[in-house]
Design brief:
single chain; 138 residues; alpha+beta; two-stranded antiparallel sheet; 2 helices; disordered N terminus
Length: 138
């Protein structure tokens, strides 16, 4: 049990360090404005923040908030980030949920665990990582 705890702690510390030392950058602005569609909000977020590639997952709207997960690519690494889309008066606003985290890099991969807090204060647990290839003996 002690070894498992140590391994989990080391993984978490590595994720924190990798996030802090990331080559990718999310602007420090909390949001990037109101838009007429989700696609327009995403396209503007890609212009405002270097490296954003694609949306790879999303939730449904709950109380006019929707969580999206996007990929981000740096020079030699791949990461993921989350944002919250809010809907008001048929307008969409994009809020970054903090800086993205690197999950795939040339020196190895990592898993991350983080808390997401939406603009309304709703909290979610978030887990992500890069799967390992498993070899099966036949």
């Amino acid at each position: 049990m002690k070894k498992l705890y140590s391994a989990l702690l080391a993984s978490l510390l590595s994720a924190i360090i990798l996030t802090a030392c990331s080559e990718t950058n999310v602007k420090s602005k909390k949001d990037v404005g109101f838009y007429s569609s989700e696609d327009e909000a995403f396209e503007n977020a890609k212009k405002e923040s270097t490296g954003i590639q694609d949306i790879i997952g999303e939730s449904k709207y709950v109380d006019n908030e929707k969580i999206v997960i996007y990929t981000i690519k740096g020079k030699s690494n791949v990461g993921i980030g989350t944002a919250t889309l809010t809907q008001k008066d048929q307008k969409i606003r994009w809020y970054f949920n903090g800086n993205p985290a690197i999950i795939k890099q040339s020196k190895g991969n990592t898993d991350i665990t983080s808390d997401i807090t939406t603009p309304k204060g709703v909290k979610y647990d978030f887990y992500a990582g890069t799967p390992n290839k498993i070899k099966y003996d036949n």
